[in-house]
Amino acid sequence: MKRKLFFLLGCAFASYSAAEQLTIDRIFSDPALSGTSPRALQYSPDGSRVTFLKGRSDDYNRYDLWEYRLKDGETRMLVNSDKLHSGEENLSDEEKARRERQRIFGSGIMEYNWSKDGKSLLFPLAGDVFYYDLNKGQSKRLTETEAFETDVRVSPKGHLVSFIRDQNIFVVDLKTGKERQLTTDGGSKDGAIKNGMAEFVAQEEMDRMTGYWWSPDEKRIAYLQVDESPVDEVTRSEIYADRIDMIKQRYPAAGRPNVKIKLGVLDLASGKTQWLDLGKDEDIYIPRVKWARDNLLSYQWQNRSQQKLELRFVDIPGGKTRTALTETSDTWVNLFHGLRFLKNSDRFIWASEKDGFKHLYLYDFSGKQLAQLTEGDWAIDELEAVDEKAGKVYFTGRKDTPLERHLYVTGLDGKGGIEKISSRSGMHGIAFADDASGYIDTYSNPTTPAQVSLHGSDGKRVTWLQENKVEKGHPLYPYMSDWIAPEFGTIKAPEGHTLYYRMYQPANFDPKKRYPVMVFLYGGPHAQLVTNSWDRPFNQYMAQQGYVVFTVDNRGSAHRGKKFEDPIFKKMGTVEVDDQVTGVKFLRSLPYVDPERIGVYGHSYGGYMALMTMFKAGDYFKAGISGAPVTGWDLYDTHYTERYMGNPNQVPEAYEASAVFPYAEGLKGPLLIYHGMADDNVLFTNTTKLIKQLQDNGQQFELMTYPGKKHSLRGKETRKHWHHMMKDFFDRNLKGEG
Fold it and tell me: pLDDT by residue (tens digit) across 496-531?
């Protein structure tokens, strides 16, 4: 098998002083090992400030609101969350679920929004709504109720604040302080009706966390009304240390009924809602809604199979609907956020994979394609900004290598070629100012934790927002002399495609010795592990403990184009396993790898993959750790599962073949399974069904459950225990220790 290394990073840091030994306890303790990198970075609408949330040095999970002022270069805290609320935050069940969907964890200020005029900020804290006036430098509490307010926003002209309370939409007049309830039927039908809220699959699978949208003139609010009554209500146990809560949850499992959904436009003057005609088919999804103009609403309509996606326009208040674009696929159509309406013309930019790779296109409102803005056998990531005056479109993408995200610019007319703006090799996360005059760059590589800098639109750095330089005093500094940089390379698979891998050689590497291997994988769609970026410290730790740590992104994973994704269609757990076996065959070709001591570890889809590799390829994987695994795809939700597997009522054989159960007797080596006992995403039932089968088969395995923990297993002490457990398992079964 041919091995091709296209970059090999040096792993010696001779300039550092005597090193401390990296430990699991240190990885999950304060201060954060990678530094206090800010999150939720935003430009103010007028471009004068950059705001962000930053964890504290004594508790990296407690967040405050900060700003950087471009005029004087000053960084200061705007809002100390303790001054508004201290002590434990008793989150509502709805907010706990929402944060789990957002993959955010912590306390204090967790999200915020700017007013359009750039004079104020809005944020929820401990269930109430706070308004921060920049001129006065003061925070004002807008609500003080027992109910929990979420999805808080300032109206486009800055006169009103909107939020969701008790499954209804409310507004507060900022001038008078008067509160007004806009919808009243939320919570009816035994709690099944939700106004302005995103349903479970929208939050978890569509990357849509809201269900309402202000018109630019703030005269109307478009909103979705979700009726959850058709969805199966399951009773699941959330098992805590001192109690068991029986939770009734409407969970739309694959093949079962979804919510009923309506799209309405509420007129604030009259208080009346105009319901739009979405068509005869009620078994649909509405993944995106966006105002194109004051009186023109767009929404994206998706059929249940997700093989058709339509962009529709609705004239308001007339209600006339027309379809501007239709995307179809024999497998599935991916959802994107690449829709941008241009301000000064009836044109818009749209992201599509119709040529096999995600690219940008320019259309007019009739649906006529005016230009293809990007093209080639590579994919863009996101449309970042449009400068209409200069005729420029800024986007992130993988033009140079799928392992790095860079910022590029091209012409709005589709002419003039593509220019790369970012220069440092690695991963760049970009957030532009509204006028495209500059951007925030969150950058990392395998030896550089996240650095945040401010740039002009030409790429020149204006200043550091958080240089996060690893020097004396930085939490990572004492460990850098032993830090191991990974190597990246490619493997040619027997089927002809190319696989990218990342590999850490063990500490004090001796090519004459043979080492155990930890294969860390995920393997599922819309994810990528092998990138030239800062990695999980646990992988570094295991390499320092004497393991080769190896990861390969199999077919089905992201940023390689639709052709690389499509082979998993109705065949989950097949081509992914084949590619992981190809990776192990490559490892076996290395003289320093012990082929009899290769273990595998993954969480979520990675947990599913750990089971499938252990059950179907036990000759290659000698020990495995499966975390929070899907074990049968009929147990997972509609939108995700049916996208890749079809409807189980139509293709039951595909679901049977993709479940882990038919292959369980193939288990040959030691297996550890762990799962949070309050998981509302990959339900704990997935693990209990597997436990029962393994026990009925007379097969021994190890099991760890975490009371009260959801899918992400949050909490410092929980994470310490979890990772100590995994290290101990691999030491016992791959090193013969303990």
Answer: 999 999 999 999 999 999 999 999 999 999 999 999
Residue 664 lies in a domain: yes
pLDDT (tens digit per residue) in 520-571? 999 999 999 999 999 999 999 999 999 999 999 999 999 999 999 999 999 9
CATH code assigned at 625:
3.40.50.1820
Catalytic residues: 604, 679, 711
Alpha-carbon torsion, ordered 240, 243, 246, 250, to 10 deg: -30
Asked, for residue 86, whether it belongs to a domain, the answer is: no
**Residue 204 falls inside a structural domain:** no
Question: Phi and psi for 129 in degrees, rounded to 5?
Answer: -110, 130
Q: CA–CA separation, 430 vs 395, rounded Å?
A: 9
Long-range Cβ contact pairs of 348-352 (< 8 A, separation 24 or more): 348/292, 349/373, 349/383, 349/386, 349/393, 350/311, 350/325, 351/380, 351/383, 352/327
Phi, psi of 540 (to 5 degrees): -60, -45
Lowest mean pLDDT among 1-10, 255-264, 560-569: 1-10
Closest CA to 281 of 312, 254, 298, 303: 303
- Number of structural domains the chain divides into: 1
Least Cα distance to 542 among 603, 476, 469, 600 occurs for 600
Whether residue 499 lies inside any domain: the answer is yes
